[in-house]
Specification:
The structure holds two protein chains of two kinds.
Chain A (H helix, E strand, L loop, with lengths): L1 H56 L18 E7 L9 H18 L3 E7 L1 H9 L6 E3 L8 H17 L4 E11 L2 E10 L7 H7 L7 E3 L2 H76 L1
Parallel strand pairs in A: 1-2, 1-4, 2-3
Antiparallel strand pairs in A: 4-5
Helix pairs in contact in A: 1-5, 1-6, 4-6
Chain B lengths: L5 E5 L4 E14 L2 E5 L6 E14 L4 E14 L2 E5 L3 E3 L5 H13 L4 H24 L1
The chains are: A alpha/beta, B alpha+beta.
């Protein structure tokens, strides 16, 4: 009897876990859809900005802006790591953290002062475990990062970069390529190498407008460079949020499937255990009856 | 009107408006500009201030725009801004506080002076808009 009981207990536990993972999968799916909508809505802004930049580049300008220029020596750099606040999302956090840690070591080896900034509880606790201290930690970026919150960060980086306090900004996050492919990546956001104009050239060639610039193309450029940087940083956050939900969805789907398999296996075991128990009981009774005769 | 004239207001988070309009009036960096169909293509920097457009049915709507860019391209006007708030939702007393804070803030160096000036301009624009109602 003892063995069958133990199996029943396990069976119940597995069923309970299955319920939880199934629910989490559904929640992640709903959140993923919301995050995805937000990301695609935000894409309109980024696209417009790059459209404007390509329009500006037609005006034969020299691109001069403190954010575009590389500092002569790279001494102080910032590494921003975007992880999630919650776990149970498969290899999402470990992928980002592995890359981030590599980059961190690389930068350290090249003799730079690296300031580590981490968003997400998972990343914070991981790096604490690695004995690496983070200068700043953020936990308020959930699955719906708002532009205002990102703007605050971005403005700080911009001033620090212009004032020469930092010479480089790297962001480690999970890049969203398509809904079936996400990839952990480290990108350098500052200095902004070249502003992306290639994306839109294909469709703007046919519609060339002779713009009037108010005040002047140069001044608009000065204004648009920080905006483009902010939009890029915001996109990183949105990408990270979408990818987190996708990897949680996938992880929970796997967990539910495993639980299903386990339930099948355990109930087969339980049935066998019960059957052998009954058989042995009958044998005992028959044996007892035979002894009485 | 024979020609369709479209207004797009895009913020980093969403496309706020996408509709046909008759005319548009908004604040550039140095003053107001009015745009009616057939405007020459232009790119302009927006200031802090009001954006008013007359919809197809003749009704006027008014928004507060928080800087950004304006692009006129044929029949499409794109407004790229960090934030656009309907004037009715603005909070005048909060802006008053921000103005006082910005006026009292000490600023050292060009960067900080610019930032202070920006904050003041922004707060004043909000106050004057809420005062109109």
């Amino acid at each position: 009897m003892a063995k069958a009981r133990a199996i029943v207990k396990r069976l119940k536990a597995v069923k309970n876990i299955r319920k939880i993972t199934r629910t989490m999968e559904l929640i992640a799916t709903a959140r993923f859809k919301k995050a995805m909508d937000r990301a695609s809505e935000a894409a309109a802004y980024t696209q417009k900005i790059s459209e404007l930049v390509s329009d500006l580049s037609q005006a034969n300008l020299e691109f001069h802006h403190p954010l575009l220029e590389k500092h002569e020596s790279e001494k102080n750099s910032v590494l921003l790591v975007l992880t999630s606040n919650r776990g149970l999302c498969g290899g999402y956090n470990s992928g980002v953290l592995k890359l981030a840690l590599n980059r961190y070591k690389e930068l350290k080896q090249s003799g730079q002062n690296v300031r580590l900034e981490i968003s997400g509880k998972r990343g914070i606790s991981f790096l604490k475990y690695q004995d690496t201290s983070a200068a700043e930690t953020y936990t308020h970026f959930e699955d719906r990062p708002t532009y205002e919150e990102v703007d605050e960060l971005a403005s700080r980086y911009i001033t620090e970069y212009i004032e020469g306090k930092i010479d480089r900004l790297d962001v480690a996050y999970t890049e969203f390529i398509s809904s079936s492919k996400q990839q952990a990546a480290v990108h350098s956001l500052l200095p902004i190498g070249a502003l992306d104009t290639s994306e839109t050239t294909a469709d703007t060639i046919t519609t060339k407008y002779d713009y009037e610039f108010l005040p002047s193309a140069q001044e608009i450029l000065n204004e648009i460079v920080p905006t483009a940087f902010k939009a890029r940083l915001f996109k990183c956050f949105l990408d990270a949020a979408v990818s987190e939900q996708i990897s949680r969805m996938v992880a929970m789907k796997g967990a539910t499937e495993n639980a299903n398999e386990m339930v099948g296996l355990l109930s087969a075991q339980y049935n066998r255990a019960r059957q052998s128990q009954i058989t042995s009981e009958i044998l005992e009774i028959i044996g007892g009856a035979a002894a009485l005769e | 009107m024979a020609q369709e004239f479209r207004l797009l207001v895009v913020t980093p988070e969403t496309t706020l408006l996408d509709q046909s309009i008759q005319s548009l009036r908004c604040t550039l960096f140095d003053g107001q500009i009015g745009i009616i169909p057939g405007r020459m293509p232009m790119v302009g920097r927006l200031g802090y201030g009001e954006l008013v457009f007359r919809a197809e049915d003749g009704s006027e709507s008014s928004y507060f725009v928080d800087g950004g860019f304006l692009q006129v391209q044929g029949n499409v006007i794109s407004v790229l801004t960090e934030q656009a708030v309907p004037v009715s939702e603005l909070n005048g007393s909060e802006a008053e506080q921000q103005l006082q804070e910005a006026l009292a803030r000490p600023a050292i160096g060009d960067e900080q002076c610019d930032a202070r000036e920006r904050d003041q301009l922004r707060a004043r624009a909000i106050i004057s808009l809420t005062g109109q109602k």
